[in-house]
Design brief:
- This protein is α+β, with helices and mostly antiparallel strands and 145 residues long.
- The chain is built from 5 helices and 6 strands, in the order αααβαβαββββ.
- It has a 6-stranded mixed sheet.
- The protein is globular, with a radius of gyration of 14 Å.
- The termini are far apart.
Length: 145
């Protein structure tokens, strides 16, 4: 199913972890509607970059989200987030470009080797963070550092 010009449902639900662990990652109709929203935002990012994007994680069923250790409140579970990269830019440069673009998003997180971009069910926060991974777990700092 085509969600937008360049993004398919299959692409936004594909998960190697789900396949490996035999976890059903089929979204409900309401989640598919949210995936169409995130696909529309990804189209805007793709146009901004001028190159294709790779989606490493889109929708995660609650079982899949638990299996990978995702936050219980993750926008991925609602189909409102995607982890992306592009061969054209480093993840940091991609995050900076999105932050400076004026695109409307709820959350943008520079995660080192990818960028998380998400929408919300309410008013967008335009929150920009950098993830820091350490022995004590993941912490977040405001901005892109």
């Amino acid at each position: 199913m085509q969600l937008s010009k360049n993004f398919t449902l299959a692409e936004l639900v594909e998960s190697q972890t789900a396949t490996r662990k035999n976890i059903d990652n089929t979204p409900a109709p309401a989640v598919i509607a949210n995936l169409a929203r995130i696909a529309a935002l990804l189209e805007q990012v793709r146009a901004l970059v001028g190159a294709p994007l790779t989606v490493s994680s889109g929708y995660r069923s609650p079982a899949l989200n638990r299996a990978i250790g995702g936050a219980a409140s993750s926008a991925h579970v609602l189909g409102l987030a995607a982890d992306i990269s592009t061969p054209k830019l480093s993840p940091r440069a991609l995050a900076m470009l999105i932050r400076q673009s004026g695109l409307v998003f709820d959350q943008l997180i520079y995660e080192g080797t990818w960028v998380h971009i998400g929408l919300s069910t309410g008013a967008p926060r335009n929150q920009v963070l950098t993830a820091r991974f350490g022995a004590g777990g993941t912490t977040y700092v405001t901005g892109i550092v």
